[in-house]
Amino acid sequence: MSAAGAPGAVGVPGGPAPVDDGVYRIHWVPGTDRLLAVCFCGEKREFEDPVELWDWLLAHPEHGA
Amino acid sequence: MTTTPFVRDQWYVAAYGYEVGRELFSRTVCGEPVLLWRTEAGEVTGMSDRCVHRRFPLSQKPSHLVGDQVVCGYHGFTYGADGACVNVPGQRRIPRTARLTSYPVVEQDSFVWVWIGDRELADEKLIPRAPWLDQPGYTTVSGMEPLAARHGLLVDNLLDLSHETYLHGGYIGTPEVAETPITTEVDEQAGIVRVSRHMEDAVCPPFYAESTGITGRITRWQDIEYHAPCLYLLHSRIAPVGTPPPDADGGDPDAFHVEVVYAITPETENSTHDFWAVARDFALGDEKVSGFLHDNNRTVVLQDVVALDVLEKAVAAERDGYQELSINIDTGGLAARRILKRLAEEAAR
């Protein structure tokens, strides 16, 4: 049992401010069935459907700039 | 769902290093039959498994190796380790086109990787790593199961581990897997999908109870990294409830770590090589634990194989435009599908 193999969980809501690293982060809002999509530019939106979530997240950098 | 297209201009795992020796070995990758063998110096070389003359598979006896040359068992065409023909029967002139397609090959982390696509684009720095499989401090068990299903179904399967609760109950599945929310990160440019599920107080399934000796409830972390298109890593952390989390510097001496690695290599449009490996940082060299983990994990993989083989038939028979349903647990799998589609489109240009 040496070093931790796991990189640890990805960020959680209320955690550090997003960084412009090109990474999309999707959090499961605790205690709900909703997903919080966080773009690397900092824009956020909640969804109930992951398909709609990805449609918004991927379109976002173009129309949200 | 339409067939997931092959993603060309990518590295794929064609074999484990231990599968390739001084016997001619063949495996079809993305529809291309690849002949693999080791030179006398021990280097793995890869070339088309079809003689340029009448297509006889060079892996088929009585084809054979003589030193570092392959002799076709049908008419005697002979090829060097670079695929160039060095001898044809009955004549001195060797036709200019008498050359087998050769494949860039890299042996790394116990795998034999081959580049499928434009060889000018082959850059070994692009190969994702799975260092635990061939590293001191870990003991690894591994295998490969043929899957009669398109590779996209295995990607779906591995990106959503909530299925462990239902398909693998009594082995690695417990109720907490399906009940625990996930977080997802997607690096679109790098083609990496990360899905994390951290269970803070869960039943210890037999797979971990018997291998670690833990008898009570556990903290169980599942951190997936999928490097599209071929390599899937599951960093699994197991510890008795109450064990301190990892140190800031990554030290985690009181937990058990298992690195579960899959290589998802398309064979044809509707079949896949399902490479699996389990590396652990405890009970090193313990053959009883190795035997248990090998047999138990293979059983789990075969449960997936049975399910996905059935699913392939169902998907292949469905009408066009079938509307499937996706829910929260599919967030990472949807991202993986989209990345695979994009990579396939980019390579086709």
TrEMBL record, chain A:
Taxonomy, superkingdom: Bacteria
Protein name as catalogued: Uncharacterized protein
Organism annotation: Streptomyces montanisoli
Automatic annotation (TrEMBL), chain B:
Pfam families found in the cross-reference section: Rieske, VanA_C
InterPro entries xref list: Cholesterol_7-desaturase, Rieske_2Fe-2S, Rieske_2Fe-2S_sf, VanA_C_cat
Domain Rieske residue range list: 11-114
GO molecular function, one term: dioxygenase activity
SUPFAM superfamilies found in the cross-reference section: Bet v1-like, ISP domain
Keywords: 2Fe-2S, Dioxygenase, Iron, Iron-sulfur, Metal-binding, Oxidoreductase
Name listed for the protein in its UniProt record: Aromatic ring-hydroxylating dioxygenase subunit alpha
Native source species: Streptomyces montanisoli
Taxonomic placement: Bacteria, Bacillati, Actinomycetota, Actinomycetes, Kitasatosporales
